[in-house]
Amino acid sequence: MSSLQEMKALFAPKSIAVIGASVKDGSIGNTVVKNLIESGFAGAIYPINPKAPDILGIKAYASVKDVPGEVDIAVFCVPAHIVLGAARECAEKKVKGYVVITSGFSEVGHEGAELEKQLVEIAKSSGGRVIGPNIVGVLLNESKANASFAPSLPYPGKTALISQSGALLISLDMATFVRQFGASSMVSLGNMSDVDFADCIDFYAHDENTNCVSLYIEGVKDGRRFIESGRKAGKPIVALKSGVSAHGAAAAASHTGSLAGSVKVYDAAFKQAHVIRARDLDELLDRSQALALQPPMTGKNICVITNGGGIGVLASDSAEAYGVPLATVPKDLQEEFKKCMPDFGSAKNPVDITGGAGLKGYEDAIAVALKSDWVDGLAVLYCETAVTQPDEIAEGVMRAIAATGVKDKPIVACFVGGVKCIAAGKKLTAAGIPFYENPDKAMSALSALRQAAIFQAEGIQDDYVPAKDVDQATARAVIAEARADGRNVLTEPEAKKVFAAYGLPVGKSQVATSEDMAVEFAQEIGYPLVMKIVSPQIIHKSDAGGVKVNIKDEAGVRAAYKTILANAKAYNADANIHGILLQSMAPMGKEVIVGSVNDPQFGPTVMFGLGGIFVEVLKDVTFRVAPFSSKTAMDMFPEIKSYQILQGTRGEKRLDQEALSVIVSRISQLVTELSDEIAETDANPIMLYPEGQGLAVVDARIILKKK
Ligand code: ADP
Ligand code: MG
């Protein structure tokens, strides 16, 4: 069976056994059976209990093996120590899905983790899949199966909500009724011993009842599979990630290592997975609702229609903050809008039809906006007034939208006021127009629809093509030599050889082991030059007084040679000194840093930032999971706060971002192809020159994986 078919048995079951079904009111085993009956599950329900002949009026069986028909899923409500025995019977019965509510597995420590592993092995031995353990269950609106201990199925709709936290899922379940936010299913993933986010995304990408997949994530299991599933889903995915400071930033020898907190790596991975972010629970639901009900916004022009200047300005501020700033409506369109408002209105955007505007003003303005080619998305804002009725306005808005017949432009509504507005909002949502109670949420929703369109346009395939002119064998030989020497740190000249094998411009350099040799090399390389200590024990060379720049003559070489050696010995008397490195002095450029880490979830991941205080103090950096194209690298640059410096400030020329993007992509290739060996890299600094003048990698660091 394909993974997709396996998931279908889980999420569209025809028969459900409840292992540990109980006659005791209020117990989980009793609640699950009751929930299945009350939610209207049309398939077969098989309570499993060795003692009770029937439970809640349904015939019970002593073992799942006694059940006469097939069993698609078994919901486990028995204590942890009984789960494995019951699972073995399920495996004999060829149960397809194991929904394990029971707690007391990997979340409680080593022994529990062992049990969990065995549970998965048993299920897989006969082709079964496990959800959980440690979950509330699954709530499937299409099958009308509330296979959980949550109070009821969610409000029906088109969002699949997948949550790692069970308690959160239950609370969101209940919240769907307050908002009348519709969910096609709710799945609690718990410990994710087997079924994970990627499996759910794969399934719901193909589910015609689901328009949007909504995730509450604490951590993903297999980061690369997550990215792949998200990208190929071709359906909007929105995620709230919690615990962003908990992992990853382990003590690290490289700059990049210490900067690779999980927040920024997840930021990058979500972009690459085409996952839209939510900052909090509210935004998760706000954005899911819009993505489930409305089409993506294929252009950048939002039109805001409002009866109040205040909420219009607030919407405008929010739009800018969400990266979809409002533009002024073109002149001819302004003329059209002016016909829908009194003289003192404003047709520029926000289109302010004023507080005096009634139903007709809204209907006319909506018709103008939706018919205009310029408008890509529409927000209808309304402040409750004494001269209008929220209910009538809502009806009018729905009528006007329906009359235009426009279906490919997203529309959101925001009514600010009292209970009448909330009631009107429910009608709008029911009619497929997502409703928000403040303009910020409406703009957050539209920006998510814009992002969905951008992801859609990027397509499923990443455009990465590995460079062919690389010499992996040489890179591996350098690494093997360091390994043979018992090291996991490459010296700068070694790291530069690896970089050079992947086509990075590292310049000329030589290692001298005597003063005279240094003088000889200096003549070959030419002045001015730079001299540096070479020692595996001295990773940060400047800290040890191990770098001298701008050396202009032989006397300088001799002096630097002595000073560097003395400094290094004073810094670390035990350091094994390979010699002194001489290299040509690169002309001054803008110092940038490109590095990589091997993230525990996502694997090789590349970082970019500006050098010096930008990276060390401001931590102004951005990441992408490797490998990726130079086009993707170009997308990274505007993400740093100091981007303007790359663009050229105060009369300086724009820097050679194109050359840099090629190097960043090549580093992503290097760390991917050698991911079995390399833990971290740093090209710090790279001297970046003005447009057309390229760059020079002046320092290189590679830390190998511990073996
Ligand atoms: P480390 O980072 O180990 O302290 P670097 O090799 O980065 O040592 O050298 C320290 C600084 O010296 C660099 O940040 C850079 O400003 C300058 N530098 C090093 N090598 C060169 C070079 N070849 N050309 C120009 N400047 C250099
Ligand atoms: Mg350096």
Which fold name corresponds to the CATH topology of the largest domain? Answer: Rossmann fold
Number of strands: 30
Kindly report the name of the CATH homologous superfamily of the largest domain: Succinyl-CoA synthetase domains
CATH architecture of the largest domain: 3-Layer(aba) Sandwich
Output the radius of gyration: 31 Å
Give the termini separation: 38 Å
Helix/strand class: alpha/beta
The outline comes out as: flat
Beta-strand content bin: 15-25%
Q: Number of DSSP helices?
A: 24
Query: What top-tier CATH class of the largest domain fits best?
Result: Alpha Beta
Query: What bound compounds does this protein have?
Result: adenosine-5'-diphosphate, magnesium ion
Taken together, the total number of domains comes to 5
Report what the structure shows.
This protein folds into 5 domains: 1-150, NAD(P)-binding Rossmann-like Domain (Rossmann fold), CATH 3.40.50.720; 154-293, Succinyl-CoA synthetase domains (Rossmann fold, 3-Layer(aba) Sandwich), CATH 3.40.50.261; 296-458, 3-Layer(aba) Sandwich (Rossmann fold), CATH 3.40.50.261; 508-584, Dna Ligase, domain 1; 590-704, D-amino Acid Aminotransferase, Chain A, domain 1 (2-Layer Sandwich), CATH 3.30.470.20. Helix content is 39%, strand content 21%. The strands form 6 sheets. It has a 7-stranded mixed beta sheet, sandwiched between helices. Strands 20, 25, 26, 27, 28, 29 and 30 form a 7-stranded antiparallel beta sheet that branches. The chain has a 5-stranded parallel beta sheet with strand order 2-1-5-6-7, sandwiched between helices. Helix 13 runs parallel beside helix 14 (390-404) and helix 14 (390-404) packs parallel to helix 15. The longest helix has 20 residues, at 439-458. The chain is flat, with a radius of gyration of 31 Å. Mean pLDDT is 94; it is low at 246-253. Bound molecules: adenosine-5'-diphosphate and magnesium ion. The site of magnesium ion has 3 residues, from strand 28. Adenosine-5'-diphosphate binds next to strand 22 and strand 23.
